[in-house]
Amino acid sequence: MRADRLKDLMPKRPRYHQMLPLDLEDQVASLYEKLEQVPFIRKRGLEYLLERFCYAPEPARELKIWH
Prior knowledge:
67 residues; mainly alpha; globular
């Protein structure tokens, strides 16, 4: 089975938050500034990172782990 088909069969992760609270958005932006030199992070951009934190059940806790 091709990898792209396998990806379609896997369950989708739930999005726990439509948007992050403004204070968490600011903290993610600060984290992005620190990690901007990492090629994968820079390639994806801040908007992608903000969106990924919406998929965390506890984004504040996840952010502490990243720090």
